[in-house]
């Protein structure tokens, strides 16, 4: 009976003629609406409403395509950040030039080394002290062995000649100020030994660079390098932020635990800070890029890439040889963390120090912009290539761990 009354209520015609008085009709309709139990109305509404489960599954299916994309972006965050910085610099150099004008290029390495100090554990410093032979090899490779390859670079016939000379000067430089440490941290290498090699090689490099350029490139011509200025710059951009980060880690309560539990987040922040460097470099060099013939610039990029591959091969062979003669698998060179740090840091060359040196040469080797331009490309390609290399190592380790668990 209740269902019949309910159906009458919902299907009652909108225009009805009745003989009842108006007031009685209201009472009759009100009584009809009041009598059915609330449960029947709610049941009817529920029967007409779509299923929540079906709706939720439709939404989930619609978002499924984003999961592989987000996983790819997370697994390849560093190379994507670097290539995005290069693309933005080429597409719209205004923002990059403005950022460089307000010294954002100095903020980037400062932030990277603050994060390096925050993530530097005390036991890692002890591990770096134990791995001093690895650090010593890295310093010798950076400052003494790899500059010899500049003679091979000088034999390459390429015009303009400044491209060849610039890459030869680039070969004599110390290791990168920030990217080698950042990549070592991402790869799970010995960050402490990477930091030690970076700081010491750049400090000693300022003293050794004039002799390397004079011996390998200038044929005995003396070169004036701004030693005091470079030392001050490296002290402010390397040592100060590194010590600041370490002091904050040890003095602020709970900060060390927070950093250790969010290492992936700090690695991504490091990657973003690192991508600011090529963004500003490409933005500032875009006008020169447009002036150079594409074939010559592509050849210079190929030379820079080949040089980096040669340095990687040389250091890989040297590390394996030292490991074989010093104990095999038990050697300190055979430990994965130490080998990664030595390989990445010793195979890279820094651009900011090279730019400072070229600016003080006063055009002795040619147009400064043309000397620097191929080195910008070489600097970017080594970072991008090593970021893909690190990503490959991480994916291989993940697959190996999954296979062991299975």
From TrEMBL:
Residue spans crossing the bilayer: 132-151, 163-183, 195-218, 230-248, 269-289, 295-318
Q: What is this protein called?
A: Probable sodium/metabolite cotransporter BASS4, chloroplastic
Quote the Gene3D superfamilies the UniProt record gives: 1.20.1530.20
- Compartments, as annotated in UniProt: Membrane; Plastid, Chloroplast envelope
> What keywords are assigned to this protein?
Chloroplast, Membrane, Plastid, Transit peptide, Transmembrane, Transmembrane helix, Transport
| Any single Gene Ontology cellular-component annotation | membrane
Q: Which organism is it from?
A: Hibiscus trionum (Flower of an hour)
Regarding protein family, the annotation reads: Belongs to the bile acid:sodium symporter (BASS) (TC 2.A.28) family.
Function in brief: May function as sodium-coupled metabolite transporter across the chloroplast envelope.
**Pfam families assigned to the protein according to its UniProt record, in alphabetical order:** SBF_like
InterPro entries cross-referenced by the UniProt entry: Na+/solute_symporter_sf, Put_Na-Bile_cotransptr
Classify the protein's membrane topology as the record does. Multi-pass membrane protein
């Amino acid at each position: 009976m209740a269902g019949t009354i309910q159906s009458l209520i919902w299907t009652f015609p909108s225009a009805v003629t009745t003989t009842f008085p108006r007031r009685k009709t209201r009472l009759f309709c009100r009584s009809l609406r009041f009598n059915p139990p609330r449960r029947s109305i709610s049941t009817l509404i529920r029967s007409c409403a779509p299923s929540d489960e079906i709706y939720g599954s439709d939404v989930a299916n619609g978002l499924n395509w984003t999961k592989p994309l987000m996983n790819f972006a997370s697994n390849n965050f560093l190379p994507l950040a670097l290539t995005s910085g290069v693309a933005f610099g080429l597409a719209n150099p205004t923002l990059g030039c403005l950022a460089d004008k307000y010294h954002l290029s100095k903020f980037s390495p400062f932030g990277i080394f603050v994060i390096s100090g925050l993530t530097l554990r005390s036991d890692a410093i002890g591990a770096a002290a134990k791995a001093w032979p690895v650090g010593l090899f890295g310093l010798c490779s950076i400052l003494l062995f790899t500059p010899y390859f500049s003679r091979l670079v000088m034999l390459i016939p390429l015009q303009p000649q400044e491209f060849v000379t610039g890459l030869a000067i680039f070969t004599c430089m110390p290791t990168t100020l920030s990217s080698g440490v950042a990549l070592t941290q991402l790869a799970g290498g010995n960050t402490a030994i990477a930091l030690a090699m970076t700081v010491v090689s750049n400090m000693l490099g300022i003293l050794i660079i004039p002799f390397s350029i004079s011996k390998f490139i200038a044929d005995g011509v003396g070169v004036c390098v701004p030693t005091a200025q470079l030392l001050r710059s490296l002290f402010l951009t390397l040592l100060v932020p590194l010590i600041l980060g370490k002091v904050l880690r040890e003095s602020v309560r709970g900060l060390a635990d927070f950093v250790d539990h969010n290492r992936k987040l700090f690695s991504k922040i490091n990657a973003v800070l690192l991508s600011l460097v090529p963004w500003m470099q490409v933005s500032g060099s875009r006008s020169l890029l447009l002036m150079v013939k594409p074939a010559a610039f592509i050849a210079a990029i190929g030379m820079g890439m080949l040089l980096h591959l040669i340095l990687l091969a040389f250091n890989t062979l040297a590390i394996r040889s030292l490991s074989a003669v010093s104990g095999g698998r038990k050697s300190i060179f055979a430990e994965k963390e130490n080998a990664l740090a030595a390989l990445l840091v010793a195979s890279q060359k820094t651009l900011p120090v090279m730019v400072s040196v070229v600016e003080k040469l006063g055009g002795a080797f040619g147009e400064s912009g043309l000397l620097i331009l191929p080195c910008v490309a070489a600097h970017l390609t080594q970072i991008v290539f090593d970021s893909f290399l690190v990503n490959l190592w991480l994916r291989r380790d993940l697959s190996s761990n999954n296979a062991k668990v299975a």
